[in-house]
Design a protein that fits this description.
The protein has 15 helices and 25 strands. The protein has 539 residues and is an alpha/beta fold.
Length: 539
C-alpha cells in the first residue's frame, strides 16, 4: 500500500484552504500530490490511500473538484474528533436552530441574518454552493465562527474577543466537544468526559485514550494519533510525503523506520524553502522525487546534498490540444511578466509595441500574471502605458477598454489597443488563455513550468532565455539572450506558417516524453526501487 501525505494547508496552519465562493483564490489548489493521486486513481498504478493531517471539514468537496471523489483516505482530525460519519449530506442553514425573531436577507453573495435592527449572523458558501461557515455578530462585531462539515454537522466553533479569534473548539458528529485549541499560546485541552480518539482499521473501531489531558500544541496531538495509525500499517507500505514545513517536524518524529518517498514541489520551495526537520526527513528518505531540475538545485542549496536516489517527474502531463489560435484574425503573443525587472519590462513592451504597430498589425500582446491581487490588471496596464510613453510611443496602445460610445463606432482613426492582461491564478484559467495564443514569450530565469508544458501540449512556439526540459532551441522554440532579439524571434513564427508548423510538430514530439503513460512508468520505477532498497536494507 502507498500512502500519500499531502500538504494541503492554509497559511501555514493545520487547516484546509476552503474559501467563500465570491473571493478569488490567492493560490491554485493544484500541486504535485494532486497529480500523483489523479494518476494512481485513474491508471490504477498501485493500491493507495490519502493520509490528510489537517482539519478538512470539506475534504470531499476538494476531492470532487480534483476528479478523485472516490479516492480512499484517512483523516487525522476525523480520528481526533471521533467522527464516524462518512458520506456527504444535504445540509442547509435552515436546518440550524435560529432564534424565532430573526429575518433572512438574501444578498448576491451571502445570507445575512438580522435580529431586529442588528446583524446577528452571516451564512457563507463555498464555490460548490455548500454552506461551510456561519459568522456570528453582536453589536456589529464578530464574536464567533462556526465551521460545518459537508457530512452535515458542526465541526469547529471559533470564539472571538474584540473580533479576534482566541479559541477553537472541535466537535464530533454528535455535537460533543472533543478538544479546544487556545490560539494565543497554542495549547490544547481535551474534554475529560470524552478523552479518546477513534481509530478505524481492519480490526474494527477502537477508542484509544489520549495520553494527556493537555498538550502544548496541536502538533503533539497529531503526532500521537498519526503514530498510532502507522502502527497498524504493514512494514512493506510506502509513504509518499509532500515536503512542507507545516508537517515536516511531526513527520520527522513519527516516520522513523518507515519507507519514505519525499516529493519536492517548486511552488512550495519558493514559499517555504527547507528547515531542519526537512533535512532530517531527507536523511531518512528512501527516494526523492522533484518536479524539475531547478527544484533539485534549490533543495540542495537549502537542505544539503541529496543522498537518496532521485527522480525528476513532472506533476503535469502533456496531451495534444490544438487550441484555436489559428482560427483567430489576430495573432496573440503571451508575455509572462511576473518577477520581470522593470528595465527589461519597459524595453520588452516598447519592442513589441513597435512590432505590432509597424510590422504586424494583427499582433496583440497579452501580459500574463499569476498574481491574485484584485487591481493587478490595472497596475500592469498603467506600467505598460508608462513604458510606452517613455519610449515615445502612443500610450493608447495599452488603453483599458471600457466599451464604445456611438461617436466611436465609425472612428477608424482610433489607435487599436495592442496590450491586454491575463490574470491566471489556477491551471484551468491558464489552459483557457493559452488556447488563443500563437507564441509564448517567457524569458525569465525561472520560467513557469505549467505554462511551458501546456504550451508544448498545444504546439505553441516558445521564446525563452535558456533551454529547458520543455523547450529545445531551434525545434519548438527559440532561445534569446537580449531583448533586441525578441521581435525577430516573434516574427519568425508569426510571419511564417511553415516555421510555426515545424515548431508545433516538434512540440508534440517532445511532449511524447511527458504523457500520462510515461509518468506512470516513472512512478512504477520509483516504487520498485524503494521496495528493492528497503528489502536490501532490512526495513
Amino acid at each position: 500500500m502507498l500512502y500519500f501525505i499531502p500538504a494541503w494547508y492554509q497559511q501555514d496552519d493545520w487547516k484546509e484552504s476552503e474559501e467563500v465562493w465570491y473571493r478569488s483564490r490567492t493560490v491554485t489548489e493544484f500541486d504535485d500530490t494532486v497529480k500523483q493521486i489523479q494518476l494512481f486513481f485513474r491508471k490504477h498504478v498501485a493500491p493507495f490511500r490519502i493520509l490528510t493531517l489537517g482539519f478538512s471539514p470539506n475534504f470531499r468537496h476538494f476531492l470532487h473538484r480534483q476528479g478523485v471523489y472516490h479516492a480512499p483516505y484517512w483523516s487525522c482530525f476525523d480520528a481526533m474528533q471521533g467522527i464516524t460519519a462518512e458520506d456527504m449530506q444535504v445540509f442547509s442553514f435552515h436546518d440550524l436552530t435560529w432564534p424565532e425573531d430573526v429575518s433572512f436577507v438574501y444578498s448576491p453573495f451571502a445570507v445575512i441574518v438580522n435580529r431586529g435592527e442588528e446583524q446577528y449572523a452571516q451564512v457563507e458558501f463555498a464555490e460548490d454552493g455548500n454552506m461551510f461557515r456561519v459568522d456570528m455578530y453582536e453589536s456589529d462585531q464578530l464574536t464567533g465562527r462556526n465551521y460545518y462539515d459537508d457530512r452535515g454537522f458542526l465541526s469547529c466553533m471559533v470564539a472571538c474577543e474584540n473580533g479576534v479569534p482566541f479559541r477553537e473548539q472541535y466537535f464530533d458528529d454528535h455535537g460533543v466537544w472533543k478538544f479546544a485549541r487556545y490560539l494565543r499560546d497554542g495549547h490544547v485541552v481535551v474534554n475529560p468526559e470524552s478523552s479518546w480518539y477513534l481509530l478505524r482499521g481492519q480490526s474494527g473501531e477502537r477508542k484509544i485514550p489520549y495520553q494527556k489531558q493537555q498538550y502544548d500544541s496541536i502538533d503533539q496531538m497529531i503526532a500521537e494519533v498519526l503514530r498510532a495509525f502507522l502502527e497498524e500499517t504493514s512494514s512493506t507500505d510506502i509513504l509518499a510525503v509532500a515536503m512542507d514545513p507545516v508537517h515536516s517536524g511531526v513527520l520527522a518524529e513519527t516516520l522513523r523506520g518507515h519507507r519514505i518517498i519525499l516529493s519536492f514541489f517548486d511552488r512550495r520551495m519558493r514559499e517555504h524553502g527547507a528547515e531542519a526537520a526537512d533535512r532530517e526527513l531527507l536523511e531518512a528518505a528512501d527516494y526523492v522525487v522533484a518536479d524539475n531540475d531547478e527544484t533539485v538545485k534549490k533543495v540542495e542549496r537549502t537542505a544539503g546534498r541529496i543522498k537518496a536516489p532521485l527522480a525528476v517527474i513532472t506533476p503535469y502531463d502533456s496531451r495534444v490540444d490544438h487550441g484555436i489560435s489559428e482560427q483567430l484574425h489576430v495573432q496573440k503573443i503571451l508575455l509572462a511578466v511576473d518577477q520581470m525587472e522593470e528595465d527589461v519590462f519597459n524595453r520588452t513592451v516598447a519592442a513589441l509595441a513597435r512590432y505590432a504597430s509597424e510590422k504586424n498589425k494583427r499582433a496583440r500582446v497579452c501580459l500574463f500574471t499569476r498574481s491574485s491581487v484584485y487591481n493587478e490588471r490595472h497596475n500592469l496596464m498603467a506600467r505598460t502605458q508608462k513604458a510606452l510613453q517613455e519610449a515615445g510611443l502612443d500610450p493608447e496602445l495599452a488603453m483599458e477598454t471600457t466599451g464604445k460610445s456611438e461617436s466611436d463606432l465609425d472612428d477608424d482613426r482610433r489607435v487599436p489597443c495592442v496590450f491586454s492582461v491575463e490574470q491566471c491564478v489556477d491551471e484551468m484559467t491558464v489552459n483557457r488563455v493559452l488556447r488563443e495564443q500563437r507564441v509564448l514569450v517567457d524569458y525569465r530565469e525561472d520560467p513557469d513550468q505549467f505554462l511551458q508544458i501546456s504550451a508544448m501540449s498545444m504546439g505553441i512556439p516558445q521564446i525563452t532565455s535558456r533551454e529547458t526540459t520543455y523547450v529545445a532551441d531551434g525545434e519548438n522554440g527559440r532561445v534569446i539572450h537580449h531583448v533586441k532579439d525578441l521581435t525577430d524571434a516573434v516574427d519568425y513564427y508569426l510571419g511564417s506558417i511553415e516555421n510555426y508548423n515545424e515548431a508545433k510538430i516538434a512540440s508534440y514530439r517532445i511532449g511524447s516524453r511527458f504523457t500520462t503513460d510515461e509518468l506512470v512508468k516513472s512512478w512504477e520505477e520509483v516504487i520498485r526501487n524503494v521496495e528493492h532498497q528497503s528489502t536490501s536494507a532490512g526495513k
